[in-house]
Amino acid sequence: MPLCKRVIPCLDVDAGRVVKGTSFRNLRDAGDPVELAVRYSEDCADEIVLLDITASTEGRSTIIEVVRRVAEVLDIPFTVGGGIRTKDEAWSVLLNGADKVSLNTAAIQNPQLITEISKNFGDQCVVLAIDAKREIRSGRVIHSVYSHSGTKHTGLDAVQWAKRGEALGAGEILLTSIDMDGTGLGYDLELLRRVSSEVNVPVIASGGVGELKHMYEAITIGGADAVLAASIFHYGKYSVRDVKYYLKERGIGVRL
Amino acid sequence: MRVAVVNYGVGNIFSVTSALKRLGVEVEVVAKLDPKSYDAIVLPGVGNFEAGSKALSERGLRGAIIEAINAGVPVLGICLGMQLMLESSEEGEGEGLGVVKGRVVRLRVPGKLPHMGWNSLSLVRWSEFLDGLGDQEWAYFVHSYYPSPDDREVVLCETEYFIRFPSVLGFKGLYGTQFHPEKSGETGRKLLRNFIYKCVRR
Description:
The structure holds 2 protein chains of 2 kinds.
Chain A: E1 6-14, E2 17-22, E3 25-31, H1 33-42, E4 48-52, H2 55-58, H3 64-73, E5 78-81, H4 87-95, E6 100-103, H5 105-109, H6 112-121, E7 126-137, E8 140-147, E9 152-157, H7 158-168, E10 172-177, H8 189-196, E11 203-206, H9 212-220, E12 226-229, H10 231-234, H11 240-249
Parallel strand pairs in A: 1-4, 1-12, 4-5, 5-6, 6-7, 7-10, 10-11, 11-12
Antiparallel strand pairs in A: 1-2, 2-3, 7-8, 8-9
Helix pairs in contact in A: 1-3, 9-11
Chain B: E1 2-6, H1 14-22, E2 26-30, E3 40-43, H2 49-58, H3 61-70, E4 75-78, H4 80-83, E5 88-89, E6 102-106, E7 115-123, E8 137-143, E9 145-149, E10 155-161, E11 163-171, E12 174-177, H5 185-199
Parallel strand pairs in B: 1-2, 1-3, 3-4, 4-12, 5-6
Antiparallel strand pairs in B: 6-9, 7-8, 7-10, 10-11, 11-12
């Protein structure tokens, strides 16, 4: 009855190629986005996320051409993020075949953008992407939100920002731990748990996965509705099906 | 084989057009419809029933679609496109095409809306549209309303999201899916292939 948990490969795209780095740096080439998207779809991926990771820093616009090429061949839903700053840019991404747009820096700078897009095209197509990093503030650990591909401290608290994003009309939260991203040591379960217990929209776990059990923990301990990964898939450590069989054997509903 | 994808200004039609092209048919995206010049018609759509109903009237598509149906041209409605085949909707004002008797009602469930994600199809009644489909295959849904036809004979599949609701309709050359076959992987490929190669008589 409840919807199944989703497994989502993420393609970080730079200049039309899929790349993946450690903590957003040291990028290594991992392939063609169209090729990879289809490969993952055939491997039972529930969704694909396409992030133009350099867009905010360098001020580039979104990768409409890649979006279009992916949409021509892909028959599962996909989300596009990176550099979407206006309602019109969101519309253009959606018109070219994407199902959802993911907002990060632009939503921090202009929170009303979330509302504008969700009012026009529906809550279901707005994903609020939050990059968070642990920080000690007044003697306790909090998760602080960073913008501009994880480079700029914003002063926002991840839990508060997620709640506000939901109230503004975000249909989903894509939650990335900057600390864990690229380490392979597991998602930040504390961050996940704190956010997922405070919002009613689905939370996608991102950043740090290295083992199958990390995904299981993100769902069971972190309360995530979906798990996202990049390098473990790109470099062939696990297939999407490996993840799903692992989860299914442990009683988690997945689409197989 | 020429398939018209009706563009009445609601939502993304690029994906559905691409999915049909992959089946090797000639696809034309049309804003005006010449009822008799196509082998099949696809009515896509994401969005609000009232806006969709209004758009069909304003663009003069209402009469053309009904004429095509009367002439025996198979029609596939997807999501809002399927809901518009019914008479009315709780979502808003405006008339549907009324080619399926009944109305579109809101999912009154204790879960999150829209019902968004992968859910499974329970086969209710055989049709060539469902040929090769197993029970409980997965399909991708994004909606808050569902069709409630008066005649339950037209319900081909149901889906459970706290309640059971009709997720595939079909009769006399008219087919409709509440989910998005163009986003439903293998299941969607089978249904679109069936629509083109089994439901369309040449």
